[in-house]
UniProtKB/TrEMBL annotation:
The chain crosses the membrane at residues 443-464. Belongs to the Rap family. Gene3D superfamilies: Tetratricopeptide repeat domain. Its main location: cytoplasm. It comes from Alkalimonas cellulosilytica. It is found in: Cytoplasm. It comes from the Bacteria. Residues 1-20 form the signal peptide. The keyword Transmembrane applies. The lineage of its organism: Bacteria, Pseudomonadati, Pseudomonadota, Gammaproteobacteria, Alkalimonas. This is CDC27 family protein.
């Protein structure tokens, strides 16, 4: 009896916490530990039996937040909240739960309203608490609320919470962050001197903390200030200094932003040298790697301007249209208006009035709306005046012409007023000239001033919420083969190792005859969906084939090919009937030589058809047909020759080109087949 009682007691103690309102231990949240290696943490946590602890589910959700696993993160944070209520966890911990929930909504779901709602729930738990840990959490919570209200353009509320964050700051690091955020907000509202006062405090604290990574962040803002004041030389110097700083401190997202800012100044000054192009290509490549749709759109927008300066209108229009597509998908009205406006202006210069008018009608710019940027408003009015004149609506043309003149004058007056206000208030940044000379040259810190309208919009989107991620095939899809070819030709300027991959259904002609051309194309598009690899830099569908342009070194190509084939194999199972696939991968520069031209790519397609034909003869079964062409002799064929197919057969017989089917060399069998 005694032994049975002890056993019953042990069982009760073991299961008791699941039913008790009193927690057995204080929940612990370890975000710093998880940030060090979220994948490893998640893997280890999921291998263990799930304990009856709210902290377990919170940490699981936090790791998934860092890994962008949004559905799992939301499910697990809800599980943690429900368990915390059941166990009556302490208020500070419950506040951390809702703070994490807000981050999930903000970063992964781009839902600012639900994020703010969760932050307010966290605040209800924290407000009564006054201990040191609670104050630290309050500081971070107020900062998140300020960031969230910034997303909603509610600057008054954003400043209110940023000031509360500063009031709760106990550590210099927290105080520095709060000053920096307040500086951004005041610049957003054109309160230049208040902004610079906070930036000065940011720099002072950064020096004390030896947090030199903060210097380029401030430099970037000073550059925007110079740009707004119409001082391009100073702006360019500031942006280049910021770019160097971000490179040194390995801040890639900020580095991308600085590259784009440098290019924007140079393009404004009609620079069209190769260095500007190189900056934009680097920004585009890094943006693809980070899945950063906004920066991809910006990069393509500026590349369109660069090609426009080069008088290459077809490429310029193509990049503009890609930027429009992405800006539409991520719902970025500001960027969308800028791209559509410059595209409409360009079309008007080319006397394509109907297309210009169609784009003009899509603009959401209101010349009388003072909340919109002046430069957009006066350029909109100028465009409206020209279109009205084309339609011989002289009354409207005169009206918009007068309005454009008035708005342009207002823009110049605003620049002058910003400079004047700054000079009257002195130069708050001057005291920091010598604190870190490698990053703070006095020439531009003493004279810096401006608004941060553009930059805050950009950084706001980078900071509190992540934008919708787009798969590369959405971003780089070319509607025509010629566009695809020209883009790959342009990519070789960056000295990138380029590969071409062709994918189609095995027996695609029979498939098309039986099911129709529309269903075949839909099948190819289905294969393309979610093909989210950063190495894929160009995509098109042509001649019943899915063509992928890849940026990948030769030694890494087998691994990339296996990843792509694995994805394609999974995707094809969703098709009815389930088809077999045939693919071919080949190195572009080795096959075509450098530099190659678009017409060389046209001829190269013969190598694809021939390889598939030969492999089909040697392997008539219904299996998947995965092939590779390897080049042992650079440029083994004269691609513009009339009898290119015979040249290819000769190269295969001589061994200067090798055709492989997975691990099997087909050249010996090809010789027998031809003979």
């Amino acid at each position: 009896m005694h032994a049975a009682f002890i056993l019953l007691l042990l069982l009760f103690l073991s299961y008791g916490p699941a039913f008790s309102a009193t927690p057995s231990a204080t929940p612990e949240f370890r975000p710093s530990l998880i940030r060090q290696a979220p994948e490893q943490f998640l893997e280890q946590a999921m291998q263990q039996p799930a304990p009856n602890s709210s902290s377990y589910w919170l940490e699981l959700a936090y790791a998934q937040l860092l890994l962008n696993q949004r559905e799992s993160a939301l499910v697990n944070i809800e599980q943690a909240i429900a368990l915390a209520v059941l166990l009556d966890d302490q208020p500070l911990f419950q506040a951390q739960l809702y703070h994490t929930k807000a981050e999930i909504y903000g970063r992964l779901y781009r839902n600012t309203e639900l994020g703010i709602e969760a932050l307010q729930q966290a605040l209800q738990w924290l407000e009564p608490l006054q201990d040191e840990r609670a104050r630290k959490e309050k500081n971070e919570l107020y900062e998140s609320l300020a960031q969230a209200h910034l997303q909603n353009s509610d600057y008054a509320q954003a400043i209110f919470y940023a000031e509360k964050s500063l009031a709760e700051a106990m550590l210099p690091q927290q105080e520095m962050n709060a000053h920096f955020l307040l500086g951004r907000l005041h610049l957003q509202m054109n309160r230049i001197n208040q902004a610079f006062s906070h930036f000065q405090s940011t720099l002072t604290l950064a020096t004390q903390l030896e947090a030199y990574h903060a210097y380029p962040l401030v430099q970037l803002r000073y550059g925007i200030g110079y740009q707004k004041m119409g001082l391009p030389e100073q702006a360019l110097q500031a942006f280049l200094q910021a770019k160097e700083g971000f490179s040194n401190y390995q801040r890639e997202r900020a580095y991308i932003n600085s590259l784009l800012r440098v290019a924007s100044v140079q393009l404004d000054q009609n620079w069209q040298d190769e260095q500007t192009y190189a900056y934009l290509q680097e920004a585009l490549q890094l943006s693809h790697q980070h899945g950063d749709a906004y920066s991809i759109a910006e990069s393509k927008f500026y590349l369109g301007q660069w090609y426009q300066l080069q008088q290459q209108q077809a490429l310029a229009y193509d990049y503009f249209e890609q930027a429009v597509s992405i800006a539409t998908q991520i719902n970025s009205h500001s960027l969308l208006n800028q791209v559509q406006l410059i595209l409409a202006e360009s079309l008007l210069q080319q006397q394509e009035f109907e297309r210009a008018k169609s784009l003009f009608q899509q603009l959401t710019i209101e010349p009388e709306d003072h909340s919109q940027a002046l430069f957009l408003r006066y350029r909109y009015a100028e465009l409206a005046a020209e279109l009205a004149a084309w339609q011989q609506d002289w009354q409207q043309a005169f009206h918009y012409s007068q309005l454009a003149r008035a708005l342009r004058f207002d823009d110049l007056r605003e620049q002058y007023q910003l400079k004047l206000d700054y000079l009257h208030q002195g130069t708050p940044a001057a005291a920091m000239v010598d604190s870190h000379p490698a990053f703070l040259p006095s020439y531009w810190l003493i004279t810096v001033t401006a608004t941060l309208l553009l930059l805050v919009v950009v950084l706001g989107r980078f900071g509190w919420q992540h934008r919708q991620r787009l798969t590369p095939n959405q971003l780089i899809f070319s509607r025509q083969w010629i566009q695809f070819s020209e883009k790959l030709v342009a990519e070789q300027r960056q000295k990138l190792p380029l590969q071409l991959m062709a994918v189609t259904l095995r027996g695609c002609q029979q498939y098309k005859q039986r099911h129709g051309e529309v269903q075949l194309r839909q099948a190819l598009i289905s294969l393309l969906q979610s093909l989210n690899f950063p190495e894929i830099i160009q995509v098109t569908i042509h001649s019943d084939v899915l063509w992928l342009g890849l940026n990948c070194p030769d030694d890494q190509l087998p691994a990339l090919e296996q990843k792509v084939l694995l994805h394609l194999g999974q995707q094809r199972k969703a098709l009815k009937p389930i088809p077999q696939l045939q693919t071919l991968v080949l190195p572009l520069q080795a096959m075509l030589g450098e530099p190659f031209k678009a017409q060389h790519l046209q001829a190269l397609r013969e190598a694809v058809w021939l390889s598939w034909y030969l492999a089909e003869q040697l392997n008539p079964s219904d299996d998947n047909l995965y092939l590779q062409l390897k080049v042992l002799e650079q440029r083994p064929c004269e691609w513009m020759a009339e009898n290119i197919r015979q040249d290819l057969l000769n190269a295969l017989q001589l061994g200067s080109i090798e055709l492989w089917q997975q691990q099997r060399l087909l050249n010996p069998s090809i010789k027998e087949l031809i003979e």
